[in-house]
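Field: COMPLEX_INPUT
Field: COMPONENT_COUNT = two
Field: RESIDUE_TOTAL = 514
Field: MODE = joint
Values follow.
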Amino acid sequence: MKKEIGIVAFKCKKCGKLHYPFHDRCLKCKGREFDPVKPQGNVKLLTFTRIYNLPWGFDQRYLTIGVVEFENGVRAMGQIKADEKDDLKIGMAMIPSWGPVRVQYGENVYGLELEPVK
Amino acid sequence: MRDVAVIGVGMIPFGRRDEDSLMEMLAYASLKALDDAGLGDKSVDAVYVGNMGSGMLQHQSAIASSLVDRLSLLPAPADTVENGPASGGSAVKNGLLAVASGYYDTVLVVGGEKMREVTGWRATDFVATMTHPLAEYVYGITLPGMAGMFTRLYMEKYGVTREHLVAVSIKNQEMGGRNPYAHVEMAITKEGIFDDPAAVVNNPVIADPLHLYDACPVSDGAAALILFPLEKIKNPVKPPVVIAGFGQATDTHTLQEREDPTDLKAVTLAAQQALEMAKLKPSDIHVAELHDAFTILEIAESEHIGFFKKGEGGKAALAGKTAFGGTIPINLSGGLKARGHPVGATGVAQVVDIVFQLRHELPKDRQVKNAQNGLTVNFGGFGNNVLSFVLRRVQQ
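Field: COMPLEX_OUTPUT
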């Protein structure tokens, strides 16, 4: 079954600024009350990289990581499911999903996964 | 506030130092600084130690307490200062404020890191722990990865090319070859890392669009300095150099929350504060040590400080304006790219290198003629905690 994307952004009740990740005070007006906002709508790739020198915990040849913006303004980092021949470009549309992005202490850790729209 | 002079400096060669422990490296650099200041058998009023990862890499904490004991500086107050790759700069700041305020007179500042004790896999993870644990680290992002994403945006917005990045690599490795303290002393050519088909093998991608020679090495090393009030210096042995200005600023933890992720606001603010305090303009600086953990950062920082307009830094590097003999020589030590980047040492080493320049004591192939003012930028996190210092040679 497809898992719901587990990201929650926070919209300041006072000035409307959107935050992800969480801050105790609004970065714009220092307000302390927020409405939770789920990322929604089309997803656009803002930037990306393919890393070949991986950190401890990743036993694979490379990892592609990008930052995307959802249509409702939420920005988040995620792992891109693409191989080396895929021609990624800034601004391209991506399909988001929620899946295992890392194993820590023997357990899967879930996060944002992205796949280029073909 | 009192004017604060750097009266002693010390550094040990950076590189892979399997024979030395972290504590030995900190002690060697400190002893050199004490000797340089003529305080070989004297005590100091306080000690600040810049270090990012002894707890993780050496499984040793409270290293400042250990160092004062080893150096027989007891009962001097001693603190370890941790601020990621800007730990050294933050240690210098703490020492500077302590002397400027009049609370202490003689302060030892030392920064060091021993990163080669662990595998590259572990060292990469150690550095990545400064990213946001839930929004970044979990995905396997690394600092080269952050720099890769930044480079792609910077290329798109400002037209920086790989040729510009290569120019920085070649310049800094050339200067590393002239610096006896540098980790990387191997000169490289454009042909070898860019033009020739073999460059694909010599200079592979590490974090697209960045290649191997765009990144600093993982290093061991330490650097130290002695701070003292200028007004109390009598008969100086070496030309006094003062820290004429400093600045520090922070930015969002994650790159994604910056309205324009190519705008390194903390660099601009820190450098502006340092220059204003010193009553100088960017054009008054004769030599600079910038935080080129990746070649793109030297270019971007040179623009954010105001040495060049946005979009001109890469072209300036390619035209030789930032090289030895150029209009604003940058990283004549080889920078992080070639001198190396033992993270806790870097901010201190940058100040030490500028002191060498302003004392006019370097060999001819590295000394900027008649240099009077120098500037440093020590870049913590991915630009989320940045320090800048302006140093000035005191006219006698």
